[in-house]
């Protein structure tokens, strides 16, 4: 299956700083990537849909100015947590679909391994 | 709105016994359903999906799921559990009414297999 990577896998930062998380599709081009957030022992909550070459679509309740998403190429999407606070500490997971797979809209999404963010 | 529900937060099974992780769905139109597994501090791994066809879907690691339209269920099953199956399992549905056909996840069920 297609591979999605994330970097870094783990990051610790001070309150007030900004943190950038990268999501890459390694062996396919992804016009659409998704960013999820997962709190301990909870489900994945979709934060936003990242579209290559256009603005991201944010879910209700997600602050777009705080969680900046850039999808500048078909293989890279970035999530920047600006002015991070301890409550932003979470596990962030990205996902992508390969549009060239036949019927990909009906197929599974490929998920990255996640990034554990801890804000002190 | 499309949604899935996982009524059990935790399922405990002895190794070698059959296991079932429950999922029910609520969708408009035909459901496109998935099961994913998550190991500690890892991303999600795809197990199987139901789109159309046979109600019994076979997936990775010996798992299978049965689509039941009358009961609106899509329970995950395995005939003989392994300790290594212990993980967090998510049922999910494709929301074709959203702009990007996003996947909506259930709340997750923690499966614990005791030796």
Please explain how this structure is put together:
The complex is a heterodimer of chains A (120) and B (115). Chain A is mainly beta. In chain A, 0% of the residues lie in helices and 49% in strands. Chain A is built from no helices and eleven strands. Chain A has strands at residues 4-7, 10-13, 19-25, 32-38, 44-51, 57-58, 67-73, 76-81, 90-96, 110-111, 115-119. The mean pLDDT of chain A is 88. Chain B is mainly β. Chain B contains no helices and twelve strands. Chain B has strands spanning 3-5, 10-14, 19-21, 24-26, 33-38, 44-50, 56-58, 64-68, 73-78, 87-94, 103-105, 109-114. In chain B, a hairpin with a 5-residue loop joins β7 (56-58) and β8 (64-68). Chain A binds chain B through residues 1, 4, 6, 32, 34, 41-44, 46, 49, 51, 57, 91, 93, 95, 105-114, 116, and chain B through 32, 34, 36, 41-46, 49, 51, 90, 94, 96, 99-108, 110.
Main sheet attributes: strand count, strand direction, barrel closure of chain B = 6 strands, mixed
Helical content band of chain B: under 10%
Looking at CATH, the homologous superfamily of chain B is Immunoglobulins
How many structural domains are formed by the residues of chain B?
Answer: 1
Counting DSSP H or I runs of 4 or more residues, the number of helices of chain B is 0
CA-atom Rg of chain B in angstroms: 14 Å
Mean pLDDT of chain A: 88
In CATH, the architecture of chain B is Sandwich
- Return residue spans of chain A where pLDDT drops below 50 for at least 5 consecutive residues: none
What is the assembly state of the chains in this entry?
heterodimer
Number of helices of chain A: 0
Helical coverage of chain A, percent range: under 10%
In the CATH scheme, the class of chain B would be Mainly Beta
